[in-house]
Amino acid sequence: MYSPKIDLIAFITLILTGLIPCAVNFPVLIQASQVLAQTPTDRKAEAERLVKQGIEQFQTSQFEVAFQSVQQALIIYREIKDRQGEGAVLNNLGVAYNILGDYAKAIDYLQQGLAIARETKNRQQQANILGGLGSAYLKLGDYTKAIDYQQQRLAIAKEIKDRAAQQQSLGELEIAYLKLEDYTKAINYQQQSLAIAREILDRKGERNALGNLGNIYNFHEDYPKAVDYYQQSLAISRDIKDRQAESIALNNLGSVYFALKDYTKAIEYYQQYMLMAPQIKDRKTEVVILENLAQSYAALKDLPRAIESYQQLLALAQQIKDQKRELLALFSLGRAYKQLKQFPRAIVYYQQLLAIAQQIKDQQIEFLALINLGIAYKG
């Protein structure tokens, strides 16, 4: 899907849970280094040492050599016929490829790991690997296979009473059914996920489930329910001091009230988002917020504030090279000044609009700019 920028803290968390990401452009499987220890016990200790070495290498951003360390560990586990160790490393490699977005390779490693987990009757590892396979197929858009693997994982997770794994599978099932537009099942699985998150006191999981439910009801234009779930999601985000999630909830609430044409409420949430924008540093979302904020003020006929927001929108759109919104801002500023009968200012913006339209050879926008320039000149 994309080549990720691996966050070190997130990586360390994965390591501590036995999930070891690997580097991009890594070499072919390398031969094990000179084996100092001769007994199976000593060789197993060497494999474990290599895994720990990989952790240290990742902590210092030596991703390729860290991957080599893990591959050396895999070779040793295979040589000493330690199927549990081999299966764990294969699972880790599958997780790594999932993180890197190479889902075909992720599936290959995970399938190898699953065969060993079934052979050794390791139910926990089976559940973990089935979840990884489900996630890979979900990213590939094969929702039928994603559902199949997550259902298998869910059954095992219930058997071994792994509530966290159950919650994760339910969340993935919700996404798959949402993609298949089976909204009844999507809501059902997300409600189950929410219940477990509350039971195990997983505040982030609870927050995510509430936000997802809000999204489903928002999509179906059941705005009262969407507002209710978004409000609960916002409250938890603030409680756990997750600024990124808080900003998402504020944006969602603003969008719902905008759809309801309750522009005063929409502005309230959009303004709260804008106060956080310097810390969030999500310019692509910020430009959308500014567009909606400006349009909300315009709908309320508060032209001075609409102009202020459109000017901010114009500056940001030019900065991030969002030409579509740059054109929108120029046209809207021209229209606002025209409504205020400040025709010289309107002409300035319409002329800029015309220049860009001619540059990109967009005849419709060029015609629109010329018509409005004519009106402004007649004033």
From TrEMBL:
The keyword Repeat applies. TPR repeats lie at residues 87-120, 127-160, 207-240, 247-280, 327-360. Keywords: Cytoplasm, Repeat, TPR repeat. One of its GO terms (cellular component) is cell cortex. One of its GO terms (molecular function) is G-protein alpha-subunit binding. It comes from the Bacteria. It is found in: Cytoplasm. This is Tetratricopeptide repeat protein. It comes from Amazonocrinis nigriterrae CENA67. The lineage of its organism: Bacteria, Bacillati, Cyanobacteriota, Cyanophyceae, Nostocales.
